[in-house]
């Protein structure tokens, strides 16, 4: 959320600056907002982690090296058990294991070597999610398949399927820690 707020602030400042003329930038009020270059160089040479934002000149703390970076799948996939789970990018395709539903705002639960029996509906999922034992009563053994569900939707697949090819699912990658 902080990244989004920072981007919105920078976009707003960019838009604000675009409306001003060159004379305005030469005006003292804009010059006063610019960061002190000597101070910035000293900070870098002294190994301080603080940096300046591009537009506002405000200091913010850089990313802590102990923090884990998070990534979203470039294209999210579902897949059977023979498809490895993890973060998918353009060079390595995997079935996403960090899926989240935007309809019910819950994480997706997966069942290996399973498929859903008929009779799995919204009310069953709503009543039994996230209890894996109760959900398991409507599963059948299907070697090589993987069953997925949230609180409002269920599906099972055997092969690799792109999530954007399944318009009935409102699922997204919820970010992978690296």
UniProtKB/TrEMBL annotation:
Entry annotated with the keyword Cytoplasm: yes
Name listed for the protein in its UniProt record: Cilia- and flagella-associated protein 418
Species: Paragonimus westermani
Record keywords: Cytoplasm
Principal cellular location given in the protein's record: cytoplasm
One cellular component term from this protein's GO annotations in UniProt: photoreceptor inner segment
Keyword Metal-binding part of the UniProt annotation: no
Location in or out of the cell: Cytoplasm; Photoreceptor inner segment
PANTHER family, sorted: CILIA- AND FLAGELLA-ASSOCIATED PROTEIN 418, PROTEIN C8ORF37
InterPro entries hit by this protein: CFAP418 (IPR029239)
Function statement: May be involved in photoreceptor outer segment disk morphogenesis.
Pfam families, alphabetized: RMP (PF14996)
């Amino acid at each position: 959320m902080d990244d989004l707020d920072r981007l919105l602030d920078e976009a707003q400042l960019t838009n604000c600056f675009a409306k001003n003329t060159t004379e305005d930038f030469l005006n003292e009020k804009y010059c006063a907002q610019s960061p002190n270059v000597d101070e910035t160089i000293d900070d870098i040479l002294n190994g301080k982690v603080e940096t300046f934002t591009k537009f506002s000149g405000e200091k913010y703390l850089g990313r802590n090296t102990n923090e884990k970076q998070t990534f979203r799948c470039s294209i999210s996939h579902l897949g059977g058990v023979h498809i490895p789970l993890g973060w998918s990018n353009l060079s390595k395709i995997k079935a996403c294991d960090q899926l989240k539903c935007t309809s019910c705002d819950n994480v997706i639960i997966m069942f290996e070597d399973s498929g859903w029996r008929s009779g799995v509906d919204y009310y069953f999922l709503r009543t039994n999610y996230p209890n894996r034992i109760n959900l398991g009563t409507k599963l059948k053994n299907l070697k090589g398949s993987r069953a997925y569900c949230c609180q409002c939707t269920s599906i099972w697949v055997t092969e690799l399927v792109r999530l954007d090819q399944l318009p009935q699912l409102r699922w997204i990658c919820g970010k992978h820690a690296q």
